[in-house]
Amino acid sequence: MSLVALDDVSKSVLLADDSRLEILRGVSLEVGAGDHVSIVGRSGSGKSTLLNILGMLDAPSSGSVSFEGREVRRMRSGRLDRLRGDNVGFVFQQFNLLAGRTAIDNVMMPLGHARGRMFWNRRRIAADMLERVGLGHRVDQIADKLSGGEQQRVAIARALVRRPVLILADEPTGALDIDTGASVMSLLDEVATETDAALVTITHDLHVAARARRHYRLDAGRLETADLSRAFEASTLAASVPSTPPRADA
Ligand SMILES: Nc1ncnc2c1ncn2[C@@H]1O[C@H](COP(=O)(O)OP(=O)(O)OP(=O)(O)O)[C@@H](O)[C@H]1O
Ligand SMILES: [Mg+2]
């Protein structure tokens, strides 16, 4: 059985001028335990919107979303909040950290609703996760005083700390240098493998996308399977074309 399934999902919004913007069109996608899916696509193609729907933070305009075989639309909001809190780890594109709170407060937050040992040991569990993202020396730093890349790693630690079965990462390496990005992606893979979680990664980086087992592209709201080897070829080709014409005396 799939963990989360979208069936013919569309999303549109009404704009201020009364026109309708179609953000997602007929998207179907099934993600199972242990699955690793990547989604690439141009800015504005609907990637974050799709991730919000997968994470049950947003509802589609039409089509259905099921979590472990149950239709999300039919759930009461309290039950949905609990389901999300227990099962989904979200790395937001804009991090969404609590301002004025320390790194460890942010990472402990999802454990405030956990039960048993996870709850009682929450400070140590959060500190261990911050250590794993390379921020063991920054646990008591106020989150908004951290650098962009450090904030992104706090966001990643927060998403993983409760061992969610569904990890949704929106540009998780967007603010990181190549080496830190690679180690953060290894950590996401590692934690997902440890708990047989599903990992859905949105990225502009083809190397990050290539780590996934299944690759998709969003193009103007339509989801299609992506051929990454062709995308790599196209990008190296583009990189080899000089952007400015060579000087005559060169
Ligand atoms: N609530 C909303 N009201 C109006 N427009 C919206 C709303 N939500 C999303 N959009 C528009 O839908 C389009 C898709 O947005 P989305 O954030 O999903 O894109 P994206 O693929 O994640 O882009 P990026 O790579 O820049 O993060 C954008 O043009 C955005 O402005
Ligand atoms: Mg986005």
Automatic annotation (TrEMBL):
The keyword Transport applies. Coiled coil: none annotated. The keyword Protein biosynthesis does not apply. Keywords: ATP-binding, Nucleotide-binding, Transport. PROSITE patterns: ABC_TRANSPORTER_1, ABC_TRANSPORTER_2. Residues 4-245 form the ABC transporter domain. It comes from the Bacteria. Pfam families: ABC_tran (PF00005). GO terms for molecular function: ATP binding. InterPro entries: AAA+_ATPase (IPR003593), ABC_transporter-like_ATP-bd (IPR003439), ABC_transporter-like_CS (IPR017871), ABC_transpr_LolD-like (IPR015854), MacB-like_ATP-bd (IPR017911), P-loop_NTPase (IPR027417). This is ABC transporter ATP-binding protein. It comes from Microbacterium algeriense. The lineage of its organism: Bacteria, Bacillati, Actinomycetota, Actinomycetes, Micrococcales.
